[in-house]
Each structure stands twice: as C-alpha cells, then as structure tokens.
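tmp note - N-acetylneuraminate lyase
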Amino acid sequence: MLSHPITGLVAATHTPFHADGSLNLSAVEKQAAHLLHTGVGRAFIGGTTGESHSLSLAERQALAERWMEVTKGTALKVVVHVGANCLGDVATLAAQAQDLGADAISALAPSYFKPRSVSSLVDCCAQITTAAPELPFFLYDIPSFTGISLSMPEFLSQGVERLPTLAGIKFTNPDGMMFQQCLYHTEGAFSILWGTDECLLAGLALGATGAVGSTYNFAAPLYLHILRAFAENDFESARREQRRSVELVARLASVGYMGAAKAVMKILGVDVGPARLPHTNLDAAQEKALAADLDAMGLLSTEFRL
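out:
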C-alpha cells in the first residue's frame, strides 16, 4: 500500500508534438517548469490527456525517459501511466518506470477485449504490478472511455489480497457513492484521486484530498484557490472559482477539448504542439477567439504563466 498518500493537484500532462505530429521531447523541460511555477507537485504522464493510445510503445518509453531526466533533482514527482490493450507492452512500460525511478504507476484496464469481472481485472493488474514490484500502483477507472463499469470497492477488496503494491484508484467516475466507499475502504488505506476537474469542489465535499486533472496544466492557480477556500470554509469563494472552472471546460469542449487545451498551453507560452488524429485542432481564428475569452475569464494573468 502507498506509504506516502498523494494529496493536492496532479497534472495529467500533454504529450508534446512538433507541427508534423512527431514527438517533441524538448518541450518537456518547459512543461515541468511551468507545473512547478504554478504550484503543481506531481505530473501524471502518458494518460488520456497524454494521448497514450495514439503513441507507439517506443514513443511512450522515450516520453517517460525524458520526464524522469527533466525532473531529476526537482520537487516534481512523476506518475507514469502504463495502461494499454497489450498487457505485454504494459509490463514493459511498468518495468521501465521502476528502473527510471518514477513515483508511481497507473493503468487503464484493457478496453478492447474487456475484463468482464473484478477478478479478471485483478488478474490483469497482477501482471502489471509483478513487472514493477517496488512502485505504488493506481488503477485508472474511467468508464466513459473504457466502457468498463465494475465495482471499485470490490476491486480494492480483492486487490488487498492479490496486489501488494496497490496504492489506490484514479477515480474518473461520476459515482459519488462509490467514491466514498473506496475512500474509506480498509480504514482509508488507499489514495482515491478525484478525476473530474469541473467538479473538484464536489470531490472535496465528499472527502477527496488529491486530484488528477488535465486543466491543472494551465489553470492550477484557479484550483488552488478552490482548495484554499474550502479549507477556510469560504464556500462562496470556492463555488465562484468552481464556476470559472466549469465555464473554462465548457469553452474548450465547444471547439474540441484536446486541441483547445493544447492551444491554451501555447497561449500561455508552453507550446506542446497539436493534438494527433482523431482529435482536431483549432485554426488561427479559433485560437484568437479562445485567447480573448481566456483573458476575459482572468486566466491569462501572470500567476498562470511561466
């Protein structure tokens, strides 16, 4: 189990590409610096936001190597997402993450040929944890993407017995009841990380102490305001800031979230390039309109920039 519970904001980082769509590892250093500057203590690399299903195994290995190289000796910790449909590839990525000195690993369940039971899911996870026996492991539960809806409390119950490095769950699941069941499972032994940025305040009210999200790449100060206001019982301020988050996410989603989120990074001076197909990207006019709207939301001030 996790010896150091993960708290605070964890940014699900973008994978940077050149304009032609090839991997741009030179951008990682600036990404890491930006996270540290805006108050983020951990990066979750190669996940959904990192377009992992659009990366080759070699690209994912190169990405992990670069992140660990850039963050060596800094306060920024790295969680490597290793999930894929091929469990052999997953094991390779997990073993590499351990060799590189990552803080933890996480994985989606295989989602083409799906595990149909909790026991089958645990079998899959056992292959992952065996490959990296020294790293805390987080299951990444996101039913809207994987199409897998299994009992996470039951997963923890079976995981206690069969997965010695199980540390918790990245919980990107709208089921608030299940979230609480997981949060207090085994006397609160697991880190259950809230995975819905636009509802962070709801997660805090349910007991969340750590959260993983894509908008923490470019709007971390907004969410730090929510965390502080909640801690101070200033719920009016917390709700106001959460509403800004909702407006931000809705604005990005209106033109294609992934491409728009990467455009925001460029606007803030951390160019991570375009999104890969099948995601779409913004044209120049759309980027200009987005920048104007971000400015109106107060999201282009110096606290949001490197």
